Amino acid sequence: MAISSAQIHLRSISLPSRLHPNATKLEAELHKLKTQEILKKADCITSEGIQSGLLGLAELYNCVEELMQSPTTQKSLVQHDQGGKIVEESLESSVELLDSCGTIRELVVMIKEQVQDLQSALRRKGQDSSIQNDTNKYFSFRKKINKSIAKSLKKLKHIESKNGATLADNHNLSMAIQMLREVTNYAISILRSLLVFLSWPAASSMGGWSFVSKIKSVASHRNDDFLSEVGSVDFALNSLNLRIKNNDSKAVDVQMACRKLQKLDASIEGFEAGLERLFRQMLQNRVTLLNILTDH
Fold first, then answer.
1. Which top-rank group of organisms is this from (predicted)?
2. Residue-range domain boundaries for the chain
3. pLDDT band for position 36 (50/70/90)?
4. What are 3's strand-pairing partners?
5. How far apart are alpha carbons 240 and 228 in whole angstroms?
6. Does residue 18 or residue 56 have the better pLDDT?
7. What are 45's strand-pairing partners?
């Protein structure tokens, strides 16, 4: 499902083959990621695109790890980064991004737990009016989690503003560090897209039929893909609440809400798996930078 977000432009880098035997592979991976829909279309972020972006980003970090481990790169770092200033700056950025990734991963786990709890409640209670307590609890959680998401977005913006400090004069060193910073830019873009995807306004804040009518109106002029999985759940739950309130609920309303929750749950599972793999690669990259700095 598609939602709107800002686009980030990444520059192209041509890596010299002498820098590392796998430099061509690294450049190819970056090019492949840049051509993905999540970066090509600023107004079309999908759960599938985010999942693919997370996995591609993890692979890119793996390529960067190979580059940083190469004797040529490490020799240049030792010879031309006197005092380790550039490596230290890169290490600081990697630590901040790793911390953000960990926080986002925790948010995703919390959302998954709430979604699964609501699924269980719907299966148990069905059309019973008491289900409104569970849906209201979900909406209350969504408002709270959106505040945490806003903080994470602010942190990513801070990291982005610091990324790209002074490069060394040495060509090989510049390319290695430049590539790491390009990967950081891409990571910020993907993580930001994920947060925007998850931060669809909690439906109850728009109030009753005003929410339902507004979404129906917009969707009719666009298409069903206007709503993300998060928005689709909000819409289904609001519709169910209104029908229960008017004593007009039907089994089909509960079934629809369950289907939307199941689809959202599947997307979140994909996000969680991608974030876990990405976190491990980021952690390894941090260890490598720390070792290089220690060797200085």
1. Eukaryota
2. 17-295
3. low
4. 45
5. 18
6. 56
7. 3
